[in-house]
Design a protein that fits this description.
It is a single chain. This protein folds into two domains: 39 residues; 168 residues, Butyryl-CoA Dehydrogenase, subunit A, domain 3, CATH 1.20.140. The protein has seven helices and five strands; from the N terminus they run E-E-H-E-E-H-H-H-H-E-H-H. Strand 1 and strand 2 form a beta hairpin. The chain is mostly helical and 216 residues long. Helix 2 runs antiparallel to helix 3. A three-stranded antiparallel β-sheet has the order 4-3-5. Strands 1-2 form a two-stranded antiparallel ribbon. It binds zinc ion. The site of zinc ion has 8 residues, from loops.
Length: 216
């Protein structure tokens, strides 16, 4: 007796991406909300990679170009993200420096690395164990929850600094590039269909199973 249940994909059933209703793919559109039905997000890996490349291209100017210009006592200073972190660190505002470092440099970079890794796994270029796969996927999901932190931090940063009467902050060209990175990594994450990972794992499981049983 097999302990393997048939999968929705084998039965021609698709879950609606909008309302979650499971219906037959041949219907073409969801009977409940009229959204287009598809088994997996179309061109998922290719779209994710395209958004990731665009985000990676903007990651450099986001870190190199001035993120903000500060006017302090009539003196204008332009700061990159790294410069900003050093500025706050030297000013002994350690928590702010650490939050900016995490949200502006570490999180976007981790998001890009993890998504690239997941794309490689989904397209079969690398063959991780199911345990590693679920851990990296969990990490990506966790980062997804914090994906708005980067924007939030820029908001807080500007608000905090504007509070001082003697100092004003305005965004520089780096901020535009940074916003681009945030939006593009968000699109990349949305375009990625995690079910592709488990499809591959499922295929591997069938391949390695001695009986190669498939429920009808
Ligand atoms: Zn629906």
């Amino acid at each position: 007796m097999s302990d393997r249940f048939p999968r929705a994909i084998e039965l021609g059933l698709a879950g609606c991406q909008t309302c979650g209703k499971v219906s037959r793919l041949v219907l073409g559109r969801c009977p409940r909300c009229d959204s287009k039905l598809f088994m997996r997000k179309p061109d998922s890996v290719r779209r994710t990679v395209a958004f990731m490349l665009a985000a990676a291209a903007l990651y450099v100017p986001a870190n190199v170009l001035p993120m903000m210009s500060m006017i302090e006592m009539g003196v204008v200073t332009e700061n990159t993200i790294t410069g900003g972190i050093i500025y706050f660190w030297q000013g002994e505002a350690y928590p702010i420096a650490l939050v900016i470092l995490t949200a502006s440099i570490i999180i976007p970079l981790l998001k890009m690395v993890a998504l690239t890794w997941l794309c490689l796994a989904a397209s079969g270029k690398i063959k991780p164990t199911p345990g590693t796969l679920s851990r990296i996927y969990w990490l990506t999901e966790m980062m997804g929850r914090w994906s708005m932190v980067d924007i939030f931090v820029v908001g807080i940063l500007v608000a905090l600094v504007q509070l001082g009467n003697y100092m004003t902050v305005s965004p520089g060209p780096g901020a535009l590039a940074f916003a681009g990175v945030v939006v593009l990594t968000m699109f990349a994450a949305i375009s990625f269909d995690p079910r592709l990972l488990w499809d591959r794992f499922n295929a591997l499981q069938i391949d390695s199973s001695p009986s190669k049983e498939i429920d009808s």
